[in-house]
Design goal:
Deoxyribonuclease I, Chain A, six-stranded mixed beta sheet, globular
Length: about 325
């Protein structure tokens, strides 16, 4: 299930034999026997861990609706077939086991990038164009939990959270994909001069409730998605989210190289036992080769962000 092969028992390096034994038949036999023994042991030994690559990707208005559709803003241009082909190629390069998706207009639109023969798509039941969901590599077992509808405030076009539980032979991992309110990247949540900040504060309360439930259950968990928030040192949003127990954020202390660089708004955050499974040093940003400004809309204004988890079996 997304395993990248057995973790090596030892690193075998080629080296010159010591002086005096070069070309010695017994020494050569011993070396061959040692290498063979290590190979057989590595094949016979059970895997000590399962490696999982988790990613998040905001695909910016991924929809089949035509330009001018009442559900789309006037300045949105749907992606062309050649744009979808490029995104599919980037999805193949990303090669993640689980991808949290944002701004995707349902399962069919998601399947245009994450091909059905490789991925199972799960989306929220929202009736908005910018839906949230997951692409899960075939072969992985997961259960769909009820959407976190508390993130979708009454009368808004906001999105619910997509909630799934991954199952493998060593246990479970609960995942929540989110796309939070934009417009309050670094302001105080109580800033009434920015209408987005009180909305984000309300969404924060819903996330705090979800995290508290996972802690009470003792289930390892992770939150992935577009938080529309820089979570630099001292950020009040992230500090409040961590209340009641520590979290580990893969993007902490890092900056993104996407579209010229800047702070992260796409985050992957681990909690519970999953804190010890996430390897922040494996954080990657898949930067597009296309550099012209027009590509930000033709592809996406967000780049895929990924990190690896190593989970005990």
């Amino acid at each position: 299930m997304g395993s990248r092969g057995l973790w090596p028992l030892a690193e075998v390096q080629e080296a010159e034999p010591p002086a005096g034994v070069r070309g010695s038949a017994p020494a050569v036999c011993v070396c061959i026997a040692l290498v063979l023994a290590l190979f057989l042991l590595s094949v016979a030994a059970p895997s000590a861990a399962t490696e999982l690559k988790l990613a998040t990707w905001n695909l910016e208005w991924l929809t089949f609706r035509p330009a001018g559709d009442p559900a789309l803003p006037a300045d949105v241009q749907p992606k062309r077939p050649e744009d979808l082909a490029r995104l599919r190629a980037y999805a193949a390069v990303l090669d993640a086991d689980v991808v949290a998706l944002q701004e995707v207009d349902g399962p069919q639109a998601a399947a245009a990038v994450f091909l059905p023969e490789r991925y199972v798509i799960h989306m929220t039941g929202d009736r908005v164009v910018q839906r949230v969901g997951f692409a899960v590599r075939r072969g992985l077992t997961f259960t769909a939990n009820p959407d976190l509808t508390a993130l979708e405030l009454p009368g808004s076009r906001l999105r619910s959270g997509a909630d799934i539980t991954l199952d493998w032979r060593g246990g479970r991992l609960r995942l929540l994909a989110v796309h939070l309110k934009s417009g309050c990247r670094q302001n105080r949540l109580t800033d009434m001069m920015r209408a987005a900040c009180p909305v984000l504060r309300t969404q924060l309360a819903a996330l705090q409730g979800w995290v508290a439930q996972r802690r009470a259950e003792g289930v390892p968990f992770a939150l992935l998605g577009d938080f529309n928030r820089w979570m630099d040192a001292g950020d009040t949003f992230y500090a409040a989210l961590q209340e009641g127990g520590g979290l580990l954020r893969a993007t902490e202390g890092r900056s993104s190289r996407c579209w010229g660089g800047g702070g992260f708004v796409d985050h992957i955050i681990a909690g519970g036992a999953a804190r010890g499974w996430m390897r922040p040093e494996t954080l990657l940003v898949l930067v597009y080769r296309e550099t012209g400004g027009e590509w930000r809309q033709l592809l996406s204004d967000h780049c895929p962000v990924s990190v690896r988890f190593v989970m005990p079996d």
